[in-house]
Amino acid sequence: MTENLKKMFKWTLTTIGILLITLALAEVMLRVFHHFKPLYCFYDQSYNRFRGRPLAEDWDFHLNSKGFKDVEFSEEKRADIRVLGLGDSFAYGIVPYRYNYYTRLEEILCMAGLDAEVINMGIPCVGPTAYLNLLVTEGLALKPDLVIVSFFVGNDFAEGAAFSASRNFGERTKWYEYSFVTSFIYYLASVKPHYEGQDAAGANEYIDQAPTFSEEAFLKIEKTRSYICRSDNSRLTDELNATVPELEEIQSICDRRNIGLFVLIIPDEMQVNPELQKMIVGGMPDPNRWDWSQPNKKLAEKLEILGINYLDLLKAFRDASLRTNLYKPRDTHWNIAGNELAAQIIGQELLNSKIFRISQEGKTP
After folding, report:
1. How many CB atoms lie within 10 A of CB 6?
2. Domain boundaries, the chain
3. Helix axes 215-225, 274-281, angle to 10 degrees
4. Of the listed ranges 65-69, 154-158, 168-172, 208-212, the one predicted with least confidence
5. Residue 61: left (phi > 0), alpha (psi -120 to 50), or beta?
6. Residues 273/327, Cβ–Cβ less than 8 Å
7. Is the pTM of the predicted complex or chain greater than 0.90?
8. Is residue 348 classed as helix, strand or coil in its secondary structure?
9. What is the phi/psi pair of residue 148, to 5°?
10. Whole-number CA gyration radius for the chain
11. Residue 183 confidence class, pLDDT cut points 50, 70, 90
12. Binning pLDDT at 50, 70 and 90, where does residue 4 land?
């Protein structure tokens, strides 16, 4: 081996050694940082990965001490009727607390003469398995009279299917999740660059018309989800069959404790926005290939068979979308108007429904 080759070999080994030591130190530092200040971009095997940081600022509000977007609550009720709201980022909401549909639902019920409280236990980026786990580990201790499961058709089928087999929420599904360094690099390279406008709450001023994602990123999200509306795609059926058992288990738990259950079916923006539909399919949708109400109808059919009460918001949101925007620009979540419409519809349905009257037995409004 020549002297130059020896020098190059030694330099290569030294460089690799320094790189490995640097990566190891970075891994340790990120894990220590995550221990004291958890970040959602790092793997966590429970629904707490995406849970809010206790007392964190959220627009003009502070999360409660449990990290939920609600006022403080305890096992002791502050009203005769307690409603427990479960769900993902739709339930958590991207609008300020006072506009959230669970917040407004409580106000609507109270204005109707009921002594009611609605607890918002929404956690972003979770699905039906997490709703079940959250109900069992934290929700039942609150002794609710009624449980509302907000089911977002845009990704809850996929989320439910991903974790239903083991019922162990948060199993690693991506190669980069095994390392904090690679997880952080992935976030910086693939996630963060696609945000624009308001991508975090904090103590900022909320702007209802400010877009969140770039046009490219937003359209990619919606195209990825569009399989749920493809008539020739069997994936939805498979995911539905894997997801429904989680809702059935929630029903069983509620039935055993005489707790009312209500599933709220939340439509994706592509289901109510004709212009977005054209962008997804690259022109006018073929009615024989695309059925924008398909996921709602199939879920409703399953719920009816199981005898689970539900409310599908698709038609109301499709009709209202002809007059006003109900989703925040390039965000996938409801804006203030969308939250308000949902709260009004849910409130009226609960006040008129048999399930809510059952949950009020023995109580005086």
Report:
1. 10
2. 53-176+196-359
3. 80
4. 168-172
5. beta
6. yes
7. no
8. helix
9. -110, 125
10. 23
11. low
12. confident
**Tens digits of residue pLDDT in 9-37:** 778 888 888 887 877 776 666 565 555 55
**90 vs 239: CA distance, rounded Å:** 20
- Token readout for 362 is 């023995």
**53-176+196-359: CATH number:** 3.40.50.1110
Span 304-315, average pLDDT: 97
Going by the DSSP 8-state scheme, the letter that residue 53 receives in this structure is: P
- The answer to whether 132 and 251 have CB atoms below 8 angstroms apart is no
User: What does the block give as tokens for 4?
Assistant: 């130059």
Quick one: residue 89, left, alpha or beta (phi over 0 = left, psi -120 to 50 = alpha)? Answer: alpha
DSSP string, 231-278: TT--HHHHHHHHHHHHHHHHHHHHHHTT-EEEEEEEPPGGGT-HHHHH
Is the model's pLDDT at 295 over the cut of 90? yes
Kindly compute the dihedral angle of the four CA atoms of residues 149, 152, 155, 157, in this order, to the nearest 10 degrees.
60
Run of H or E residues at 146:
strand 146-152
Does residue 299 contact residue 151 with C-beta atoms inside 8 Å?
yes
pLDDT at 193 over 80: no
What average pLDDT does the segment 199-219 reach?
A: 86
For residue 328, which amino acid is it?
K
Task: List the end-to-end C-alpha distance of the chain, in Å, as a whole number.
Answer: 91
